[in-house]
Specification:
By secondary structure, the chain is α+β, with helices and mostly antiparallel strands. It folds into 2 domains: 2-104; 107-140 and 147-207, no CATH class. It contains 7 helices and 6 strands; from the N terminus they run ααααααβαβββββ. The chain is elongated, with a radius of gyration of 24 Å.
Length: 208
């Protein structure tokens, strides 16, 4: 019976391992942005677990008859809630680190566009125009679901993107609607493009 209880406690503590893994693989190459939804579902499960925790705490304090069972439930729910909160925090930190790494990887492409613009007086008409004089090849963003860099320029871009002469966009597959934007003018609004914008170095992450 004691071994079973230990196994149950270990099982309830698994979010502290699972949620960081979900955070990492929701952004890392070879992963899937859909894992964000599983992570969110696990965090939502903390709400009923918290009710169970406080309910069992009350039972421990006022119900002598059920105190032994209430203590066991209190410990079990407390372990799960704590593991989920800690795991969720670590997972979000890992995901944010992945986004900062993406921004660093993109610096070469951004510099190539700026070099073309400086030399020619206008932004490149497309990313292919950068190869091979300004960059050896167009890199991959290196994110989950293997998206590509989209590039936009022209008057429609200026009117749609805060007057920016060109914009880089990275959009994961449709199952995950969040988007990464690069504005050369760095004039990101707080909200727009279907969500609220979070600065990731020189990029902005649109949380939908």
């Amino acid at each position: 019976m004691r071994a079973l209880r230990i196994l149950i406690v270990i099982a309830l503590a698994t979010p502290v391992v699972i949620m960081p893994a979900l955070g990492h693989w929701s952004i890392a190459p070879g992963g899937s942005g859909a894992l964000q939804y599983l992570s969110a579902f696990m965090m939502l499960s903390v709400i009923p677990a918290a009710f169970v925790f406080f309910g069992s705490l009350v039972a421990v304090l006022v119900k002598d008859r059920y105190r032994k069972i209430a203590i066991q439930v209190l410990v079990a729910s407390g372990v799960y809630v704590s593991a989920s909160i800690i795991g969720g925090y670590i997972g979000e930190e890992l995901r944010t680190r992945g986004l900062h790494a993406f921004a660093a990887r993109s610096a070469g492409l951004v510099e190539a566009i700026r070099s073309y613009e400086s030399q020619n007086g206008t932004p490149p008409p497309d990313l292919a125009s950068l190869v091979p004089d300004f960059i050896a090849a167009i890199p991959s963003p290196g994110l989950a679901d293997d998206p590509e860099y989209d590039y936009s320029t022209g008057e429609s871009t200026k009117s749609s993107y805060q007057g920016n002469p060109w914009v880089l966009i990275v959009s994961p597959p449709a199952i995950n609607f969040d988007t990464l934007l690069y504005f050369p003018l760095q004039n990101y609004p707080d909200q727009g493009y279907g969500g609220w914008l979070e600065k990731i170095d020189d990029w902005a992450y649109v949380n939908e």
